[in-house]
Amino acid sequence: MNSTISNKAIAGAAKQDRSAVKPLYSRAAQASPFWNEPLETMPRRELDAMHLRRLKGLIDHAYRHIPMYREIYDKAGVKPEDIQSLDDYAKKLPSIDKSDVSFYQKQGKATVPGSEEHTTFMYQTSGTSGNILLEPGNYADNVNNWASQWWAHGIRPSDSFYFAFGFGTFMAFWSAYQDALLLGGQIITGGGVDTKTRILQIQQFRPTVLIATPTYALRLAEVAREIGVDPRASSVRIVTTAGEPGAIVPAIRRAIEDAWGATALDLYGISELWGSTSWECPKHQDRMHLSENSAYGIVVDESGGLVPDGGKGEFVLTNYESTVQPLIKYRTHDIVEWHKAPCDCGRTWLSLRGGVLARSDQMVTVKGTNVYPTSVQVLLGEVRGLSERVEIHIHGGDGVPVSVEVKVEPREGVEAASFPALKAQAEKQLHDMIGVSIPVEVVQPQSLPRYELKAKVVFDHRPKRTT
Amino acid sequence: MNAKELQGITEDLASLTEIARRLRERSGIPVVESCARWCEMYSQVALWSLGAGDRFQFMDTVALGEEK
């Protein structure tokens, strides 16, 4: 008997027995559009009171037990009792950066001494933005963020999840795996097999939800077509992604949804924050909600001052998830636009319009104008005929003026004769929207490298500083 | 759900956490203590998810040898 027949037999048996099996959730829970209605709809004043209570407890805990915080706060002359309001938190408490955590991790001062037995997982960051950080944590630390999103978007225990992920030391979809378990869906772990085998597994197991990075979801679809499999005809109805900007970028949403004939969902995660994530609103595709169950977020300007509601700046987060290595007032370097008004989806949790708009540490100044690579990618996605596959090259430095140039693939089926017109449109779009001239090269289809996890978009060719 | 119903759920979760904690600390049977620990942790997470409880309480018992 081959495995496909075997699976059908199992599915058939399960169907026959369904009436004899109690559902995992009550009818009321099944029908709820919220994973956690009391907190997701909590009025802002109550939410803020809860945050203040949690922040005070966490800051006190960290100061008493984690040497990193005692040293940083002592150096700044701040004691836990100085933080009596959210305003105190924003204005008085020092923020920390990845370099601080890296520095103290090397001395063994970033975690609670004696917490080894409580550390049930050890992950590390992907290294996208420099130093690799260790992420020690407990099995109960990272739950509910994916589940909140999935439940809001109609994913239920009857769904099955295919994880197109290698399950290594990079946390990434480990957190999704835990939440799929928590939610009660069926889990199919692709593991370390090659892309073609994953496509065959999707055909065999017929999952309804595909979990991958946006780059890899698109790569899977591309390889499927190469081997004669139509991903649009697959069982996948939802593609849920994280790890890099995904469906929040219209061009990437369009590419994923076109490729799979499925709905694309985006989640913004920072793995060292253990699930301090925001996820796509079920009613508005242009915004994400911060999981305020897991984190408290503020937005600050370049001098660290609080940006007013509705403004743009750097997202600074405290996560409540990591019990072993909590990160308090952690600089994400992600630029967001925040809104505190309740959303008409029913949630009161912070809204981030457009998700992560840019990375502050990737900003380059060209002829006096700040240019964010992420913005370049988003703007090019608005040019009809261009694909989401983009490379942004930064040159100059050491006395040579900084310049940016862009390579972009056209969408499938676009004739080469159209390339000059596309180039002109793309350059005009960038000039009109950013204010500087950025040369664009429309390259041959399939000519930019393909990636298995995250796409490398920014190539900085400037001389590296050693000091 | 009204405030009274929510209060009832919160109280049940707090009781569950406490019962699980007692089992974890006192049973002397590894399999019971292990399962009770999972129960305790997840009932704490549920409590925390409703805006109550303390996620860091359990760490205080091991940190820096501080007496509770």
Could you list some keywords that capture this structure?
heterodimer, A: 467 residues, alpha/beta, GMP Synthetase, Chain A, domain 3, twelve-stranded mixed beta sheet, four-stranded mixed beta sheet, 14 helices, 20 strands, disordered N terminus, B: 68 residues, mainly alpha, 2 helices, 65% helix, 0% strand, elongated, disordered C terminus
Question: What does the secondary structure layout of this molecule look like, with pairings?
Answer:
The complex is a heterodimer of chains A (467) and B (68).
Chain A: H1 3-17, H2 27-31, H3 37-40, H4 44-65, H5 67-76, H6 86-92, H7 98-106, E1 121-124, E2 134-137, H8 145-152, E3 160-163, H9 174-183, E4 186-189, H10 195-205, E5 209-212, H11 214-226, E6 238-241, H12 250-260, E7 263-268, E8 278-280, E9 287-290, E10 295-300, E11 312-319, E12 330-339, E13 351-353, E14 358-359, E15 364-366, E16 369-371, H13 373-381, E17 386-397, E18 400-410, H14 419-434, E19 440-442, E20 458-460
Chain B: H1 3-26, H2 30-49
Summary, kept brief:
The complex is a heterodimer of chains A (467) and B (68). Chain A is α/β, with parallel strands linked by helices.
Describe this structure as you would to a colleague.
- The complex is a heterodimer of chains A (467) and B (68).
- In chain A, 32% of the residues lie in helices and 22% in strands.
- The model of chain A is unreliable at 1-5 (pLDDT under 50).
- Chain A has 467 residues and is of the alpha/beta class.
- Chain A contains 14 helices and 20 strands.
- Chain A is globular and about 70 Å long.
- Chain A has a domain at 363-460: 2-Layer Sandwich (GMP Synthetase, Chain A, domain 3).
- The longest helix of chain A is centred in the first third of the chain and has 22 residues, at 44-65.
- Chain B is mainly α and 68 residues long.
- In chain B, helix 1 (3-26) packs antiparallel against helix 2 (30-49).
- Chain B has helices spanning 3-26, 30-49.
- Chains A and B meet through helix 3 and helix 4 of A and helix 2 of B.
